[in-house]
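REQUEST ID: PR-0412
SUBMITTED BY: lab tech R.K.
PRIORITY: routine
TASK: structure prediction, single protein chain
INPUT:
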Amino acid sequence: MSIATASGTTSTKSAPVYHRDVEAMGTIITIDLFGGEALDPLEIARALDDAALLLHEADDVFSTWQPHSPLSRLRRGEIDLDEVPREVAEVLDACRIARRLSQHWFDPWSMPGGVDPTGLVKGWAAQRALNSLRGRGLSGALVNAAGDVASFGGPAGTAAFRIGVASPVNPRQLAWVVESPGAVATSGTYERGNHLINPFTGDAAMTASATVTGPDLALADALATALALAGPAGLAFVRRIGGYEGLVIDTTGATHLSDGFPTAASVVPEGPA
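STATUS: complete
OUTPUT:
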């Protein structure tokens, strides 16, 4: 899990000017806006409404829990790809790219019950919501989708946001702090158990935590899933993707990271996150 911190240090958090909690995609997605003190509150409210609407629309289209969602009907073979919203084809194209770049460690077509883009679509939806907030006079914004964080700018307009990566040993503590390049996604087994399945063997993942940073949260989200499955050896495929970096914390607590990983601090002293 990634934990957003909005200041130049991990010990002090700058309060956002505007905050919104959005219940979507089986979780609470938080939207925080910074530097909008001089803006019309009604315009800000409309911006938050627009971002929330995009999240709800993604939930309606891609839910695997709602039996009548377009994705559920596609998985059951009731409709064809040309009968679903165009966003489905867009996401599946992104999944194919992520599958190729991850050397098939991320493979939505290997899931039981039919194609399941869940490992990418939450990041894709959060990135869309963030992009809708650009150009509105804000110094920065964060969209945190259950620990996968898309951002632009910072609380002071020039400083980047710092994102804390929770320790897989104690999720209430931080194991690492990242200088966000725009997207920080973390995948692991320490909160939801062994829900990640190796697409090659069908076995559960053995890596405790994997974090991927980059410019786009959709791809970072998919790559974090792949890296959690592949373990430290998966850093090889992350290194080959321009603009993306990876961090793996294995079940012993040892850390492995790519050379360009945007570290703000390696290990934070023990204490509440």
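NOTES: The helical segments are 41-62, 70-75, 86-101, 118-131, 217-230, 235-239.
REVIEWED BY: pending
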